Amino acid sequence: MSFHNQITGLILAGGRGSRMGSVDKGLQPFRTSTLIEHVIARLAPQVASYAINANRNLTRYQELAGNVPVLPDYLDGYAGPLAGLQIGLQFCPTELLLTVPCDSPLLPADLAQRLHAALSEQHADVALAVTMQTRPDAATPQRQLHPVFALLKTSVLPQLEAYLASGERRMESWFKSLRVAEVLFEDDAAFSNVNTLEELQALEQPLVPAPPSQHDAALHVEQAQHLIAQQITPLDASLTVPLCSALDRVLAQDVISPINVPAYDNSAMDGYAMRGADLPTPEQAQATLKVIGIAYAGRPCALEVQAGDCIRIMTGAAMPAGCDSVLPQELAAAISENSVTIAHGVIQNGANRRFAGEDLKQGSVALAKGKLLRPADLGLIASLGLAEVSVQRKLRVAFFSTGDELRAPGQPLGQGCIYDSNRYTVFGMLTRLGCEVIDMGIVRDDPQALDAALRSACQQADAIITSGGVSEGAADYTRDILASLGQLSFWKLAMRPGRPLAFGQIRDGAHSAWLIGLPGNPVAVAVSFYLFARPALLAMMGAQAPQATLQARAQTAIRKRPGRTEYQRGIISRGTDGRPEVRLTGAQGSGILRSMTEANCIVVLGHEQGNVAAGDMVDVLPFEGLI
Q1: By CB atoms within 10 Å of each CB, which of 176, 370, 487, 621 scores lowest?
Q2: 9 among the known binding-site residues?
Q3: Per residue in 571-599, pLDDT tens?
C-alpha cells in the first residue's frame, strides 16, 4: 500500500480572521481563487482524503473544497491549532494525520512523503518540518520548527486530550512530550504563511508550480488521479428525456419502481401448477393429478385447484389460486390429455414459482443515480412502465490542438509540418463518452492566440481538452497561461507515455472550466485521455468510471525501469491452456499511433515494478467499450 493511502489531511483554518479585516485567511482572494484552494491543490495529491478545521463560514469552505468534511473545534473559545488538531484526530479515518495551515499556498509537494519516511524510520509519534532561517540579528542561520506542518499518529489523541484538559494550549510544549522526528526542508519559502494583507499582496505574483525536489521529481499516477477525483464534482444540471433518447446518458435521479416486479406470483417454467401438499411421499413413489384447466401468460386461469388437481401452465402465467409449485413438463413421469404423473423427489414444494416483487419491490430503487444507461437498463426501465427518465445534460467539452507545425487533413503539407491526428482521436473519444463536442481547430504556438482560445473555450464549455504545449519546450505555453488564468494543480507525471500533462481550472469573468492539457505525441494523447480525462469527464457527468484491470500472462519479456508507471500497447488473447496471455504490439514509441490501432489493451506496469519475465502475470486494461 502506498504511503499516501495511510494519511488523512487536515487544513487548519479555525482562527478568528482578526488580522486580515475580520475575513478568514483561507477565504482571502488569491490569484483568481482563494488561499485555501491553493493549499488544497498542493495537499490533495499527497493524502487519501482531507478535511478542513474551521469555526466560521463552514458552508463556504465546504463549497470551495467540493463538499469535504468541515470540522469546527470541539473546544470553545478559539483555542488555537491544538483545538483543530484535537477534532482532526477524533475524525481521522486513517492511521496518520497530516496538518497544514490554510495560509501557506506554497507548501512542499513532497511534504507527506518525507515526513512519513522520517516517522517510520525513527519510530516516532510525530514528524515535524524544520527549516534554517537567516535572521537580521543573527550571524548564522537559525533552526526554525514548523509545528503546524506535522504528521501524527492518531494514537496520540488520548495524550493530547489530557494535555488540553490540564488547561495547556501551547503546541510546542505538547510536542515535547512525544517522540518527535524532525525533517529538514531546504526551501524556507514553502513554509511561509500569510498574516497580513500586505504579505498577501506580496505573494500575488504568478504562481508557477515549484520545481520538483530531488525527493519527488513528478507526481505518481495514483496521486494525480486522486487529486482530480478530489477536486471535480458533478454538474448540477438535468433534464427529462424520452426513454429512447436516454442511451449512454447518466441518470440524474434514482429510478424508483412504481410496481412490483414481477407484479404477481407466476410460473418460471412451462409445466403443471399444483399444490405442494399433493407431491408424492416416499411411500407413494409417484402420484397422478387431474388436469382441470390451462393458464396462459396474460390470460390468468380463474379455476381454483382442489386436492389432487393441477393446471397446465405456461412460463410467465399467473399462479392459479391454491397452487404453490410448478412441475416442468419435461420432468413429468407420464402425461395424458386429462392427467399428469409425477415421481417422488423430482421437485420440492414451492419449486419454479416466482413471487411478486421478487426482482423489485414497489418503491425500491431500480437503478441508482449516476448509472450510465446501457441497453439492458432501458429494458428494465421500460418494464416498470416508465416512458421517460431524468438524465444529466450532456457535458460540453471544447477541444483543440496546439502547434505551428500542424495542418488539417486535406491541406497541403509543407516542409516540417505534420497532419493533426490528435484532434480526431480526442473527437472520437469525446463522442464515445456522449459529450457535446466543440471543435476549436488548431491554435498557433502564440501566447495571445492560446490565451484567446482558452478564454473562448471557458465561455462555452464545462471542460477543455488540449493536446500539445505542456512540456518544457520554449514554445509550450499552455501550462503557463493556465497558471495566469486560473490554478494549475500539476503538469508533470511519473509515467510513460504522457509525462507532461497539465490539470487545473481556468476562469474568465463569471465562467470557469476544468482543463486537461494532454501531451502532443499521438499515443500519449490516447493513453492520457483514457487514464485522466475520461474519469474526470465522467465524474463531471455524475457517473462512476471504474477501470477494470485484468491479469494476463506475458508471452515475452518486457523491459521496465522502476520509478515510473508505464503503459505499453498489447494484444490480449487466450493461450493454449485457455488462460489470457498478452504480447506487445512492437515498438512502443509515443509517436507510433499504429501501435494503438493494432492493440486491444494496455499493459500496465506499476511505478515500482521492474523488468517482466516471460510467463509473469501483468495487469491489463482492455480497450473494448472504452476508447
Answers
A1: 176
A2: no
A3: 999 988 889 999 998 777 666 777 778 88
